[in-house]
Automatic annotation (TrEMBL):
Pathway: Purine metabolism; IMP biosynthesis via de novo pathway; 5-amino-1-(5-phospho-D-ribosyl)imidazole from N(2)-formyl-N(1)-(5-phospho-D-ribosyl)glycinamide: step 2/2
Protein family membership: Belongs to the AIR synthase family.
Domain PurM-like C-terminal: from-to ranges: 192-356
CDD domains: PurM (cd02196)
Protein name from the UniProt record: Phosphoribosylformylglycinamidine cyclo-ligase
Alphabetical list of Pfam families matching this protein: AIRS, AIRS_C
Keyword Cytoplasm: yes
GO terms under biological process: 'de novo' IMP biosynthetic process; adenine biosynthetic process
An example Gene Ontology molecular-function term: ATP binding
Annotated source species: Amnibacterium kyonggiense
Residue span, PurM-like N-terminal domain: 72-180
Amino acid sequence: MVQGPSSHPAVPTRAQGAPVDRYAAAGVDTHAGDTAVELMKRSVAATHGPQVLGGVGGFAGLWDASALTRYTRPILATSTDGVGTKIAIAQALDKHDTIGQDLVGMVVDDIVVVGAAPLFMTDYIACGRVVPERIAAIVDGIARACAGARTALVGGETAEHPDLIAPDDYDVAGAAVGVVEADRLLGADRVREGDVVLALASSGLHSNGYSLVRRIIRDAGLRYDTRVADYGTSLGEALLEPTRLYTADLLDVLDGPDGGAVHALGHVTGGGLAANLARVLPPGARVDLDRSTWTPTPVFTVLADLGGFPLADVEGAWNLGIGMFAVVDASAAGRIAGSLDAAGIRTWQVGVVERGLADDSYVQGAKGVEGGAVRLVGAYAG
């Protein structure tokens, strides 16, 4: 599974007459990578069901697609993403066991937006120097999150780039493939006037807006190990809270009696609240998101206070407590919210879809999509 060249900064010693490992002498030690694979094999294998063939370590991950024959018209969905500069905080704290969940959340929760169930995922870790225990911790986090999202981790790569990446730096990325029956594909074409917009609570910052977060912390002269009373933890621990995974619980709703009442989903990632809802609404639809329906959690209010700005200034950067939107038929909104609440995701009504012209106070479409119009109104609940 996850393996490619690895490095170590020291030139290896050798017994008299033994060949010199020229790759290791150049800064790439493949033995460290092999050790990392051995450490991660068990957690990766735990995500494998009968559809996964070949196990860990092959050149390609194999997934038996005969399961798709039960679909009338299977539509494949794919997504790729990374974690961004949240990794800098994990590196600063030397804590690497949660960043994998952030990666999985960024990828599979994009796939479920169209109603698809993720089938399998691959990862890519680029680093300056392979530290087997660190790589294994990252991959273990990826694997545990894949299991939680009911998807298989079928392969990946760890690449070491001496002289290009600092020895203790790394970056992670991943991609996944999912499937949905064509007539169950979610999207703007299903949204109707009068539909209710439900907000699904986030676990914290998730994996967006961390360049601003790190600037605030730096300008305030704070350390990540500083205890923050409002957080009940250190600053760093609060900032590393992993991204909530919505996929499994949303698929349970979609497969349940009210699944047909779910018309669209919007994953709140880069671009913030209004933009990520606007892109899953049809042109001509508009929504006023009522700030008074929720109170942003302390991780947001403390950072805004430190930065000296109101929360409204970062509605396009941070999720402010909402990680996903669900646009649903009004008649089923209460039951769907109840199901998600019972699954541990606080869910509430935050708006209603209307028809009509939108003025410049609305965000209209996003990411190249000619979508609907969304704005935030009112004041946040105290």
